[in-house]
Amino acid sequence: MPRALRRLVHFMVFCPLSKGFQSRLPAIKVKYLLLAWLCILGASWVVYMQYASYTELCRGHVCQVVICDHYRRGIISGSACKALCDQRTLTLQRCLSTSPAYQVYDGQWKDRPVVIKCGLQESLKAEGAPDPGLRPETSLFDKPTRGTSMDEFREMLHSFFKSNLGDQPSLNALVERVITLADVTRDGKVTLAEAKSVWALLQINEFLLILALQEKEHTPKLLGFCGDLYVTERVAHSALYQLDVPSYLRPLVPEAVSSGLNRWLAPAWPRRARITIGLLEFVEEIFHGAYGSFLMCDASPRQVGYNGRYDCRMADLRSVASEATVRGYLRGRRCETNADCTYGHDCTATCDRLAKQCNLEVVRPNLAKVCTLLQDFLLSGAPAELRPDLEKQLRTCVTLSGLASQMEVHHALVLNNLKTLLWKKISNTQYS
After folding, report:
1. Which of 22, 98, 170, 203 falls between 20 and 30 A from 375, CA-CA?
2. Does the pTM of the predicted model rise above 0.85?
């Protein structure tokens, strides 16, 4: 060791501290000790909350045991049953559940990444928010009953779709799609186990939406099912923002901090514009489609995802409801204020205070909700020359309101103007 370096080390190790510093040393030790204990307690609390939430939310093994038991007893069937229960090539991996009653897992099917969802029905709370809940076993797979003919099953399906989607001219095509899906063996016949499985799946709102919107570009593809467990393609990015602060940490993390981190972690602006165009196309797809209109009753960042090419994919369709379902909920409902006429999180109609009943038209259209979601996502880092026009378009879009039946032209105009503005900026570039 060089002599100069030896002298420096000797000075740092053996040089006595100043008397002033020595007099403060006990107090400094106590402060640092207290800080260390606080850090240990905080970290322990976070670990405990994470473990507690995991054990409460993640019950995929229970779902798999129940499904495979029903499959082996011949009660249910499906295209994914052998892979899940016999071959073990369909495996549950990372838990994504946000409710104990709604099991969501990342998984693998052979070498393909998938998302696995299972074991729930959706019943309405008193206030109208869809509340996924596990079905009691006595009601699992109870329809159709033994002896039901194919014609009777087709009639069951048609009546179900008419009730949930409205009297659409294309319902017969949807019935045939379900029959084809149920025929796992591809022998032109539907067994009782196959019929029970597909009927149970149709009671799940998200599955019904996936089936009705399966041909749309921005809906995850259905890959298989077993009983009321179903498998879809995995969306590479399952939320609009990468950072999702757990609920138990939100009181401790300022919203400005989480928003700032999400802006920093977000894709480059042209890629965000591409995602936005896809989301606007989805709004078009569910507005007066082949199976009626659908309403987004919770336009939050956790519902919207995108793939590795930055094409928008709806990661969660549970909050999307058919217009017929929402109207059925509102029809004849007693109310005192508009808040009493809310389906889900924010599908709100007006309250007729004289009749004390809800009107049937939802006030705020899908596009206004989506534009509210996109304001921060799209304006942050936007090109300076585009920002004034973009702010103006989004401001117009956010303020859209009124009866949807009276504003279709205005709705379409605002949507197309916004898409055109974004597309002009990114067309003929690597992001288009």
Report:
1. 98
2. no
